[in-house]
Amino acid sequence: MAVMAAAFQVAGVGSGIVTGTAIGRESGIGGTSCSRSLGDSLMLTAGVYRPCRSAKAAVMKQCDCHPVLLNGFDGLRSSGPSSLPRFGNESSSSFASIAGAQINSRRCRSAAATALPRPGEARASTYKVSVLGAAGGIGQPLSLLLKMSPLISDLRLHDIANVKGVTADLSHCNTPAQVSGFMGPEELAEAVRDADLVVIPAGVPRKPGMTRDDLFNVNAGIVQSLVEAVAKHAPKALINVICNPVNSTVPIAAEVLKKQGVYDPARLFGVTTLDVVRSNTFVAEAKGLRLIDVDVPVVGGHAGGTILPLLSKTKPRVEFTAEEIESLTKRIQEAGTEVVQAKAGTGSATLSMAYAAARFAESCLRGLDGDTDVYECSYVQCDVTELPFFATRVKLGRKGVEAVVPIEGISEYEQRALEAMKPELKASIEKGAAFVNKEPVTASAS
């Protein structure tokens, strides 16, 4: 399979510690150069790609065993496999034109040399990743996408259901990651032992008519037990919580880690990437833009009215009418319900969630691997508001969250929505913490 390159310039934030004031206006969400989300610039499943900050275009790289999915991907044009470059192709004078840019092949080879190996060569750094809930509706496609990543050498799948079949199936894919399966509570410890990254899609999916309390009552205990195992057997792992309601399950995970004495707020993430993916898709459709160009930061939480797309910070800059803002915001907030209803009781947004989760996991691994230009929106502990947890754009690095981008210069509509969401988000956070600490709480509204 051909190796290919992608090109685009990336605007990022400066270095800083985990604080809401570490990054100035010009590099923050309210600044003039809000960072582009790399995952929207190409298919994650095309392989690991890494930005070249000093170049006008970044190089998209992949091993020959990772397919490039070009069909329907606007902005990537090729006359066929022969037009795409391969690593080490010294006879190539330039890479294919991608995202409107031609890159000198010598520059691209230089950038690629520090990222991924040539086909058949081993990476200097590969990582151990555990997926808890790997046999479920999200877990299976997520595991497939992770199996395709050359950043992963050891992929461990766990579930209470029969995950052995999923393991056997994935093991036939000729990609470098070695897959192993673990089933039930008795094998959970080995499934997460010394993992670099633990992804948790486990839990009951949302069904028509379910309230948030219904979802919480089942999934809270699942997250608690899984994170307890991670705390004991992989205390340094980055933890990606997908299990809903994320607004409460992330605080649950935090309290569990605190009780075990291993809590590091920089290593715990609520995966809200699906909100960003949806926002980019809906805005591109509404405005006739190429998906490769669109980046909409999404802040707040990961449920209903707590999801706040900052349309005023859309890249490229786009003008929206008041009606468009209202309509797009509502659709993004209710997109999960849209899928649940469309599936007529047979499931939730499993495929798009798996894609978004794989993108975020890949970003975490790129940060661990030393990439200095990795930015994603995520629900983390931070001080961008008075609430202990909030979704905002963060810079990822070797220790997890390296910096939190402050929310500045947003529109009046967005500021009102941000203030309006706080009571609900505060209640969800307190409910999660109280669950672990066995404190009485008042049931939230459905």
From TrEMBL:
InterPro entries reported in the protein's UniProt record: Lactate/malate_DH_C, Lactate/malate_DH_N, Lactate_DH/Glyco_Ohase_4_C, Malate_DH_AS, Malate_DH_type1, NAD(P)-bd_dom_sf
GO molecular function, one term: L-malate dehydrogenase (NAD+) activity
Reactions catalysed, as given in the entry: (S)-malate + NAD(+) = oxaloacetate + NADH + H(+)
Domain Lactate/malate dehydrogenase C-terminal: 272-436
Gene Ontology cellular component annotations, sorted alphabetically: mitochondrion
Residue span, Lactate/malate dehydrogenase N-terminal domain: 128-270
Keyword annotations of the record: NAD, Oxidoreductase, Tricarboxylic acid cycle
Example GO BP: malate metabolic process
Assigned EC number: 1.1.1.37
Transmembrane segments: none
Pfam hit, one: Ldh_1_C
Self-association state and partner proteins as the record states: Homodimer.
The family this protein is said to belong to: Belongs to the LDH/MDH superfamily. MDH type 1 family.
Name this protein carries in UniProt: malate dehydrogenase
Species of provenance: Chara braunii (Braun's stonewort)
